[in-house]
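Figure 2 data, in text form.
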Amino acid sequence: MSKSDKRIVILTEDELRKTFSRLSYEIIEKISNLDNLLLIGIPTRGIHLAEVMRKEIFTKTGVNVKKGIIDPTFYRDDQSRVGTRLIKATEIPTSIEKKEIVLIDDVIFTGRTIRAAIDSLLSWGRPQKIMLLVMIDRGNRELPIQPDFYGRKVPTSKKETIKLCLKQVDGEEGIFLNSRSSKDIS
């Protein structure tokens, strides 16, 4: 982060833990049969969030919900704009037919990652329902996609970024907004 970057705390570690707990209760309330639930994480932070939510649900219910990974990279319609990254292998532990799926990502912004993830997921079968959980809803949607579960709504500009930090990955925990001054934006 350069000297002109500003880091603002959106959720502290304690607030993030409380948000995980609240979101897990919301899922438990909405899904009548947790044995039919499949949590699917989108790389990179969505994978870790799916594991956090799986553990939260297990702690509250004793049900060990299945989880998987879907990498939507090849289904994106904006690869030339966002570029590609190292592909994470898609892992779906069970048939998705007639499953209630909660697709999990850290942040929703334009909606294009989620659209690509849904397209990718549908190539694996036809679930009963697909719901979306995100920690942060940034607004600025380019597609009509809205989360079913979200931690916080934080309207942002395109020059701002939001980062979810998890202890097991980053050594710290919280959600942070990074804002660059306009003279740093080219």
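Caption note: The mean pLDDT is 90.
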